[in-house]
Write a structure and sequence with these properties.
heterodimer; A: 278 residues; mainly alpha; two-stranded antiparallel sheet; B: 289 residues
């Protein structure tokens, strides 16, 4: 018999299960709301947590047909992928430099990059809204592509630096001896072995960009230019008349996608973290 | 070495321009009476700050910000510690549980909060249905979660806790993973099990990680705006505004850029204090190891 800390598997399932149910309940509630008929949803005599009538795709159809939701999905993908591209282009060389050089001035720049992640969007959205309209990007998705890397680059650089440090320097020294330039060594030797870390940073940046709210509601005003995160709360919620069915259908889908991405990311980071220490 | 600086320069220049530049502009704007649309305002010195701290709404927002951030993170880290201590074991189906536990943090915060707005709806709240079914409240006496100032604050704290708990859990889980495996055996030989081991052995060893998880959570919760904006929009009667939502209302909705920038800068002492504390804890833990 193996006993750990005096409590058994049953307690583990009980505690973890209880936390998981409370934490995931809103998503169950979104799911059941999204697929219930309107009549089922708004009949006070019904038990709300189950399907009293057979499920329907009516709300999903309504969301895709009668609202700008498909545009918002497109906009979110466009902004997310562009931010990932910019983030990688900027973070990869920076992280490589931070991992391979330890001169005081390099470390100072590294510290400054890290410090910039401590400045939250709340302090910056008002002056940036001014700058964005000065460069005539107000209500354009490019304003988000321009500003979002400010919160994805510091974290990505930090993650990549940690990863590059685990790659032995001999690998690219061999390439340098063979006459490669440094940039070429980075591209043809380091990048291939770093594929998992790059995927990880891409997911990290994509999820951050998709979750962003403050800049989104500040820079973008027209319904067609919104992302999912800002469009759903501001354009499907009108006064007291809320169409909860389509709303929850729209909320559920991106939440589950982000959930899957995050679980993969966290599982990978944890195994890397444990591996790096042992 | 010049190579290194060349490789660093895109990230450095970009962040300096966007974050550094915007921060300076925020400081400049806060000392002017600039409004949206005009190119610049007149210099008013500390006038915006002086005016801000005399407004009851701003003082209320300061209190709300601090209360929401501190209370939600105490709850999140306490629950996260319990949850992480169990997640640190091996068991079947862990990945599925991890997925469910991470959802609140992974889902875009504005969207998760929309889900809560529906859960706490005035007519069809599932929470009130459960309370009624359990005969805790009568049909007439059902609480109006988002229409009563006190309950609205409690709702905001609950949502903020719900959304921060997965983050605290993951940070603490990393802390648990870094504890030496011999610890279990040592504690068992000394007769410390379960809660006693947790309180006398694990928590003291994890103290730096707990402090960092809490402080980072406080920074996130204090600077975030989406929960309040989506759940209550500061209402009822401006009773649940936090500094960020009040800054948005002043700077964007009313178009008073200068005054809004001053309100958002009131966050700086809180954020700076927390950030310095994080750095101190991290540095001390490294020396201690």
């Amino acid at each position: 018999m193996r006993r750990r800390g005096g409590t058994g598997a049953a307690t583990t399932y009980l505690v973890v299960g209880a936390f998981a149910s409370v934490l995931a309940f809103p998503f169950y509630w979104m799911f059941i709301t999204a697929f219930k008929t309107g009549h089922d949803l708004y009949d006070p005599a019904n038990v709300p947590v189950i399907f009293n009538e057979s499920p329907t795709l009516e709300h999903v159809r309504q969301l895709l047909r009668d609202t700008p939701y498909p545009h918002w999905v497109e906009n979110t993908m466009f902004v997310g992928l562009s931010v990932v591209a910019v983030t990688l282009a900027v973070s990869l060389p920076a992280a490589y430099a931070l991992a391979r050089y330890s001169e005081p001035c390099v470390r100072r720049v590294g510290a400054a990059i890290f410090l910039s992640s401590l400045v939250p969007p709340t302090l910056l959205f008002l002056p940036l809204s001014r700058l964005v309209s000065d460069v005539r990007l107000h209500d354009s998705l490019w304003s988000l592509v321009l500003v979002y890397p400010s919160f994805t680059v510091p974290g990505s650089t930090w993650l990549l630096t940690g990863f590059f440090k685990t790659i032995p320097a001999d690998i690219e020294e061999a390439a340098l001896v063979d006459g490669c330039s440094q940039l070429r060594a980075l591209r043809s030797v380091i990048l291939p072995v770093s594929a998992p870390a790059i995927v990880c940073v891409a997911i990290f940046s994509f999820t951050l960009a998709t979750n962003e709210f403050v800049y989104g509601v500040t820079f973008i005003t027209s319904a067609a230019q919104k992302t999912i995160s800002t469009g759903l709360p501001s354009h499907l919620v009108r006064g007291d008349v809320l169409s909860w069915g389509p709303l929850m259908a729209g909320v559920l889908m991106p939440s589950l996608v982000m959930g899957l991405l995050y679980t993969g990311l966290v599982t990978w980071l944890m195994s890397w973290w444990v591996g790096a220490r042992s | 070495m010049s190579h290194a600086l060349a490789l660093l320069s895109p990230a450095g220049v970009y962040l300096l321009a966007v974050v550094g530049g915007a921060l300076l502009l925020a400081a400049y704007l806060s000392s002017t009476d600039a409004v949206a649309g005009s190119l610049s305002g007149d210099f008013v010195g500390l006038g915006n700050f002086a005016r801000a701290v005399q407004q009851p709404a701003v003082l209320r927002a300061v209190t709300n910000t601090i209360v929401v951030a501190i209370v939600s993170q105490v709850l999140a880290v306490t629950c996260g510690l319990v949850l992480a201590s169990f997640l640190n074991r091996r068991f079947r189906g862990k990945r599925l549980f991890l997925f469910l536990i991470l959802l609140p943090w992974a889902a875009p915060v504005a969207l998760g909060t929309l889900g809560w707005k529906w859960i706490l709806d005035s007519l069809f709240s599932v929470v009130n249905w459960a309370l009624r079914s359990a005969h805790v409240v009568s049909a007439q006496g059902a609480p109006q979660w988002l229409a009563d100032p006190k309950l609205a604050m409690i709702s905001i704290i609950a949502v903020e806790t719900w959304r921060s708990l997965p983050f605290a859990t993951v940070v603490l889980l990393a802390g648990f993973a870094s504890l030496p495996p011999e610890l279990d055996d040592a504690a068992r030989i000394d007769g410390a099990n379960g809660w006693r081991k947790m309180i006398h052995v694990t928590i003291p060893l994890l103290a730096p990680v707990i402090a960092v998880a809490w402080l980072i959570g406080v920074v996130f919760a204090a600077s975030g705006m989406a929960v309040v904006q989506v759940l209550t929009a500061g209402g009822p009667l401006d009773s649940t505004h936090v500094l960020s939502s009040w800054a948005f209302r002043t700077g964007i909705d009313s178009g008073e850029l200068g005054a809004g920038a001053a309100v958002s800068l009131l966050l700086v002492p809180l954020l700076a204090g927390a950030s310095i504390a994080v750095l101190c804890v991290v540095r001390r833990a490294e020396i201690g190891l």
